[in-house]
Amino acid sequence: MSSELDELRSWVASKARDLPAEGLTDDLPLLEGRHLTSLHIPQLVLLLERLRKAPVDVEELNAGDFRDIATIGAKFLGTGPDLGHRRA
Amino acid sequence: MGSATAAAGTERRSGPGERSGPQQRLGPVGLRWNPRGYTALSGELLALAERCDAAFVLLGGGADTGERPRAEEYPALLAAEDLAPVGYLASFPHLATFAVSLAPDEDNLRRFAASVRQAPAGEVPPAAQAPVGEVLTPAACYHVYAGHRGEELAAPLTVTTRNTCFRREAHYAPLRRQWSFRMRELVRLGTREEVRHFLAVTRAALDRFLAELDLPAGWEAATDPFFDPAAHPQYLAQKLRPTKFEACYEGLAVASANLHEDHFGRAYGITRDGAPTTSGCVAFGVERWLYALTDRWGADPAGWPDVLAAAERSRPR
Question: Across all residues in chain B, what is the average pLDDT?
Fold first, then answer.
């Protein structure tokens, strides 16, 4: 498991609100579930740029790119899905 | 977002081979276009506009549960302080039009009156201005949030309101893109589920209405036209999770459905079940419907469909 993905998880855990009883999972819909809001997005972009050591072109962002931790990891950090962190 | 609000404005510009413009086609039935960006309506075309406006109100979700939208009417002037909680002027400075008046001291007014007599007809010479405190309404629904500021809702609230709205644009085209235009809105404030249900039901009714009128239109995800969009968190949020959808007829957005989440509820302190209320709106640009209907059905009023009957058949049950 990548340390970048762990850092992403820690960051989301520190910002997310109203988490479900089972806690933060990699497939929890972050924006759709309002766990993160628009105000978090620029901070998340900066975090991703630091972790991937490359810029994120916000003009190229598409619907669903920040859906959940697994999607963000796969799209921006080059990580594959880690089923151990998904809900059963 | 909410600034999100209403019918933003996808519009395909006309090409050189386009049919004769709306002014030529529709002048005889009541269109008078001022190329500075606004129309005057009369006769059959005005009657069609009024029927469209009444039809839109019938499409509002809530009718399925017996709820009647509460009609609210607001002035075209909107206090800048009422827009401040959502930072409208910082997000959309390029769209704003202000209500400007002259500084009221007599010397200033005398100087102005003298200079305006000397100026070419129609030219307004420079003069000292009074402080600007009002914006001309950019979208009809802003008044609703400001008007219900601080309220605790015991039940979902559905409001319908219409206003003359103003947006500065780089170019204007009769009926399709105007500086001054009419906007009808259906707005719901409530829990997230209550608002999502309202948007789904209203969109479905609008789909039936479009089909009844044989207006081919599809829904497209859209973003609000933020100034410096890449720097704007809400623009990014709209790209990442679309909450604004426009019903487009041949590239022209004739209506938009917007989920604001708790953006306005938080900003204006409106609560439901002890939490900031969610809000959503469906907005209709009346002139754009005139364009679409006359483009589809022609300029002869005898060929126009009965929009009220179509709305009656389409309304939520």
Answer: 91
**Shared domain check, B109 and B83:** no
Are B153 and B284 contained in the same domain?
yes
Are residues B310 and B281 located together in one domain of the fold?
Answer: yes
Given B1, B234, B239, which is nearest A63 (Cβ)?
A: B239
What is the rounded distance in angstroms from the CA atom of residue A69 to the CA atom of residue A84?
A: 13
For testing contact with chain A, the best of B228, B241, B279 (most A CBs within 10 A): B241
Please state, as a whole number, how many other Cβ atoms lie within 10 Å of the Cβ of residue B230: 12
Query: Smallest CA–CA separation between B201 and chain A, in Å?
Result: 20
Nearest-by-CA chain A residue for B222: A63
Last residue within a domain, chosen from B78, B112, B135: B135
Residue from the list B192, B230, B241 with its beta carbon closest to the beta carbon of A58: B230
Put simply, whether A18 touches B (Cβ < 8 Å) is no
Is the residue at B222 inside a domain? yes
Within 13 Å, how many C-alpha atoms sit on residue B218's CB side?
4
Rounded Cα distance between B25 and B247, Å, is 24
Mean pLDDT on B246-270: 96
Give me the CATH number covering residue B214.
3.30.930.10
* Domain-located, residue B17: no
Element (H, E) at B188: strand B180-190
Task: Determine the structural domain holding residue B299 and report its residue range.
Answer: 22-97+138-314
* pLDDT score recorded for residue B16: 38
Q: What is the pLDDT of residues B61-78, one digit of tens each?
A: 775 567 789 999 999 999
Do residues B233 and A42 lie in contact, with contact meaning Cβ atoms separated by under 8 Å?
yes
Which is higher by pLDDT, B225 or B312?
Answer: B312
Is B6 among the domain residues? no
| Complex ipTM more than 0.90, yes or no | no
Q: Does A23 touch chain B (CB under 8 A)?
A: no
Are B58 and B131 in contact by the 8 Å Cβ rule? The answer is: no
| Tally of domains in chain B | 2
Distance CA A33, CA B290 (A): 39
Select from B135, B162, B186 the last residue of a domain: B135
Q: Name which residue leads in pLDDT, B305 or B227.
A: B305
Number of domains in chain A: 1
Taking contacts as CB-CB distances below 8 angstroms, the residues of chain A near B267 are none
